[in-house]
Amino acid sequence: MSRVAVIGAGYVGLTTAACLADLGNDVIVVDINREKINQLLHNHVPFFEPGLIELVERNTKAGRLNFTTSYREAVPGAEYAIIAVSTPEGEGGEADLSFVEAAAGSIADAMDGPLVVVNKSTVPPLTGDMVSKVLRNRNQKHTAEVVSNPEFLREGSAIQDFMHPDRIVIGSHDRAAGEKVAKLYEPLNAPILITPNIYTAEMVKYASNAFLAARISFINEIARISERVGADAKLVAEGMGMDKRIGPSYLDVGLGYGGSCLVGEETVLVRRGDRVSLTALAQVFTEFSSIEETEVLAWQPETGSVGFARASAATMRPFAGEIFEVRTQMGRRVLCTPDHPFVTRDGVKLASELGPEDCLPIAISSQSGAELARSQELVRSGAHMSAGAATEVAVRTELSSGLWRGVGMHVAAEQVPLPDLTWTQPVEHKRALLAGYWQGDGSWSYIRGGPSVILECGTTSRELADGLLRLLADLGVVASMRVGRTTKSTRDTYWLRISGADQVENLLDLLRESERKAITESIDRQKKRTAPTGYRREGANTAWVRVVGVERRPFAGAVYSLEVPGVHTFVTTGGLVTHNCFPKDVKALSALAERFDYHPELLHAVMDINRDQRMLVIDKLRECLEGLNDRIVGLLGLAFKPNTDDLREAPSIDIARVLLAAGAQVRAFDPAAMEGARVKLPEVEYTRDSYDLAAGADALVVVTEWNEFRRLDLGRVKASMRRPVIVDGRNIYDPQVMRDLGFTYRGIGRD
Ligand SMILES: NC(=O)c1ccc[n+]([C@@H]2O[C@H](COP(=O)([O-])OP(=O)(O)OC[C@H]3O[C@@H](n4cnc5c(N)ncnc54)[C@H](O)[C@@H]3O)[C@@H](O)[C@H]2O)c1
After folding, report:
1. Mean pLDDT of 544-555
2. Residue 560: what pLDDT?
3. What confidence tens digit (pLDDT) does each residue in 559-611 have?
4. Residue 86: CB within 6 Å of ligand 1?
């Protein structure tokens, strides 16, 4: 029998403590959450986990299991201190290790003899070294050996998983400490792998998680193909799983999870059919449909070419926390979540990692749409480039340059955004439009008396400024932007400025005849032609600008992203290029790899696929209900999986919030997770059971595959619904049976 202190009374800590006590050890659990410890002292388990209450009760009664909030009560006299505290996702996707660090510090303060400190929290490789350092620095009197012993239990079957594990992984720089931990597990008769250094054991956990995520992404991709060719992905997975080399687990087609990262006002150039418009991300999301093809302007990292590429998904998620404003030279700025990735000269980096040493690309398109369509590089990269509509529209509408000049004049006078037709015009019409605008609202001046010249214009419309920057980029010109207020004005003015002899000459025809002469003469007087400053041009389509600042500010609202397969980028406000966003799952491992100069291609693909999966349900609902506004949608299940009340990373939260944002009324029922959900989702109506949920609803969505949903009286459900629509996010029903019952049924990967 050993004396064990367990740090943290969560799913992992409490299960570990109760199981070790049941194996005959003397266990004391310490948690900083007083309320939790109080509940446990009164024989109440603060979360739902089958069988845990009985186990806790039995061992508490037998005197083998105790609870405290004091490390001084728990640690002195213990042979082991097992850290099982939370490791939430931190800024930039890496694991937040502050709880682990705090726990190590408190252990060090309370230690009164040699101790083996076991890390069970899920942490990235190298964390063990950090824990050792904290222990050493805080307590020089007593030595503690650190051992990594990652936990693989699954909520809902935690006790079974702890008592009958597939394997136990233990790693330490100190072999004796590793073997001492192995002794704790001897009664389980399970295979034990002791690794000769701590990093290997830490890596086993991360690699296992990434592999499982890869299996899910794999089958979700197969599901999307299956849907298109008329195969049933659920049966495809069953057939695959019968192969012993593959096995059936983690091949369930279902809901991945969303993630997205720019605020809704940031813009993209969108092409649908032969219409191109400059659109805010929030609107792209609202209008996005997986049926009609949506293309967005994207930038190809390998070749630096620019063109339209198919967006496979638009995502939205609620975000509360610090939003980052990334500011660059030439006055570009974009608001994004801290974990939003950017393409930099040195590979992909998250917003929170950007600093003054980083350069970001601005996309310049100096070719017409038709020429771009022939750009072989983008086609090869997998992005779908469709034929440019530019010339066609121009010929059909037969609009003269003069007319476009007139449109430009109108834009200048009214300060309204550029008309959508702008984007499909040939270059000469774009120039005419810009000339019209410039002659209304532009000006030119000498820099410090000459001979260098700049062109400048100002507008109070953010949309117009964004449009002008992009239009100038279409003509091969990189303008800078400055936002400021004149003394008299109460509104921001966006000042666009064009400098450099070549750039100014390129735009001479924007100006009146009389002005052109003065400018040309001045430029000719330059001994050395001035080059534009503030960016570095590379190839025909890219200007690199340095990051000049990243500012944080509080934010609560929706954030958005787009998925553009192949190129993985899109061109946002002011022409700045941003990467598609990463979903949470494998992000920490990927961030770690990037820190060590390795670009994890497969992990990126896994994340991309995972991200889109959750939004499929929304697409299917929108299609079946012809829109979501005012529709009543019932969620069958909220917990992230059956037999638990855990809502962390549960798809239900995102799905409910997206539906609410789209104007739907959302109801929900879950056998265990309603209490927690009421706090997270107060706008949702919670019902007594599944039948109440169905009554009067336009659609039901199966979010969690609780067994009781499989046994519903579906005839009764259908009779009470306003429309018999079921979107089965977990494929628990048989499509044929559902159709025979008269439901409009949509599964995942088996329509
Ligand atoms: N839940 C799972 O299925 C699962 C499975 C395998 C591994 N893990 C990992 O195990 C770890 C714990 O997960 P969980 O689900 O049990 O988390 P949890 O949030 O349910 O519990 C963590 C507990 O730690 C306590 N705590 C935080 N800081 C503390 C401190 N300084 N001292 C004492 N107590 C402190 C919290 O109050 C909380 O009660 C995480 O790293 C997680 O990734 C979880």
Report:
1. 91
2. 84
3. 888 877 667 789 999 999 998 764 443 666 777 777 777 777 788 778 777 66
4. yes
296 beta partners: 270, 309
Residues serving a catalytic function are 261
Residue 120 CA to ligand 1 centre (angstroms): 9
27/22 Cα distance (integer angstroms): 10
State pLDDT tens for residues 75-117: 999 999 999 998 876 655 567 899 999 999 999 999 999 999 9
Mention every residue, 6+ apart, whose C-beta is less than 8 A from residue 307: 297, 298, 300, 365, 372, 373, 375, 378, 383, 385
pLDDT at res. 661: 80
**Which residue of 49, 72, 123, 151 sits with most ligand 1 atoms within 8 Å of its CB, as the best mutation to test the pocket?**
151
For 351-366, the pLDDT digits (tens) are: 877 889 899 999 997 5
Rounded CA-CA distance 598/596 in Å is 6
From 6, 12, 14, 117, mutation site for ligand 1 pocket: most ligand atoms within 8 A of C-beta: 12
Please report which confidence band the pLDDT of residue 252 belongs to, taking 50, 70 and 90 as the band edges.
low
Residue 84 near ligand 1, beta carbon < 6 Å:
yes
Structural domains present in the chain: 3-196 (3.40.50.720), 262-364+541-581 (2.170.16.10), 369-538 (3.10.28.10), 615-746 (3.40.50.720)
pLDDT > 70? residue 380: no
Between residues 707 and 485, which one has the greater pLDDT? 707
Query: Is 103 near ligand 1, meaning CB less than 6 Å away?
Result: yes
Q: What is the rounded distance in angstroms from the CA atom of residue 697 to the CA atom of residue 72? A: 55
Pocket test for ligand 1, best of 7, 31, 155, 641 (most atoms within 8 A of CB): 31
Long-range contacts of 228-233 (CB under 8 A, 24+ apart): 231/750, 232/735, 232/749, 232/750, 233/731, 233/748, 233/749, 233/750
Compute the distance from residue 85 Cα to the ligand 1 centre, in Å: 4
Q: What atom in ligand 1 is closest to the CA of residue 12?
A: 16
Does ligand 1 come within 6 angstroms of the Cβ of 7?
yes
